[in-house]
């Protein structure tokens, strides 16, 4: 197998990542606390001294997940502004219009989500 030299750092980083995950999982399994399965009082739900209400398996409203996904989407948008902020002089007017188009698309998406009522918790 003849790999180009540019792939070697990527393979090293992937190997370190996989090794870290493996060591963390094995370390947690062998060095972590062992729980006895028979002690039902110790393994029961505990909510800061407040008596437990209902079941822990109660489904969440879909609005919660929709809001979380929208937050991630609009949060990732901010990440794409960093390269522009660092190199805005080098991008010039063409880069400015590209970022302006990018922002316009996300504003359209935001207004669409807003008009559809995805951000209203009361509905």
Automatic annotation (TrEMBL):
It is an enzyme of class 7 (translocase). It is found in: Cell membrane; Membrane. Pfam families: Oxidored_q4 (PF00507). Its EC number is 7.1.1.-. InterPro entries: NAD(P)H_OxRDtase_bac/plastid, NADH_UbQ/plastoQ_OxRdtase_su3, NDAH_ubi_oxred_su3_sf. It catalyses: a quinone + NADH + 5 H(+)(in) = a quinol + NAD(+) + 4 H(+)(out). Keywords: Cell membrane, Membrane, NAD, Quinone, Translocase, Transmembrane, Transmembrane helix, Transport. It is a multi-pass membrane protein. The chain crosses the membrane at residues 6-32, 64-84, 96-114. NDH-1 shuttles electrons from NADH, via FMN and iron-sulfur (Fe-S) centers, to quinones in the respiratory chain. The immediate electron acceptor for the enzyme in this species is believed to be a menaquinone. Couples the redox reaction to proton translocation (for every two electrons transferred, four hydrogen ions are translocated across the cytoplasmic membrane), and thus conserves the redox energy in a proton gradient. PANTHER family: NADH-QUINONE OXIDOREDUCTASE SUBUNIT A, NADH-UBIQUINONE OXIDOREDUCTASE CHAIN 3. Belongs to the complex I subunit 3 family. NDH-1 is composed of 14 different subunits. Subunits NuoA, H, J, K, L, M, N constitute the membrane sector of the complex. This is NADH-quinone oxidoreductase subunit A. It comes from Chryseobacterium zhengzhouense.
């Amino acid at each position: 197998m003849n790999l180009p030299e540019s792939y070697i750092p990527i393979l090293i980083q992937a190997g370190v990542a996989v090794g870290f995950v493996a060591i963390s999982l094995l370390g947690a399994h062998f060095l972590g606390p062992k729980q006895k399965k028979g002690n039902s009082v110790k393994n029961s739900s505990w909510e800061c001294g407040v008596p437990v209400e209902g079941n822990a398996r109660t489904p969440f409203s879909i609005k919660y997940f929709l809001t979380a996904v929208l937050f991630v989407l609009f949060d990732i948008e901010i990440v794409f502004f960093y390269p522009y902020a660092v190199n805005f002089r080098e991008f010039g007017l063409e880069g400015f219009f590209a970022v302006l188009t990018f922002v316009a698309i996300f504003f359209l998406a935001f207004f669409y989500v807003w008009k559809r009522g995805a951000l209203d918790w009361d509905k």
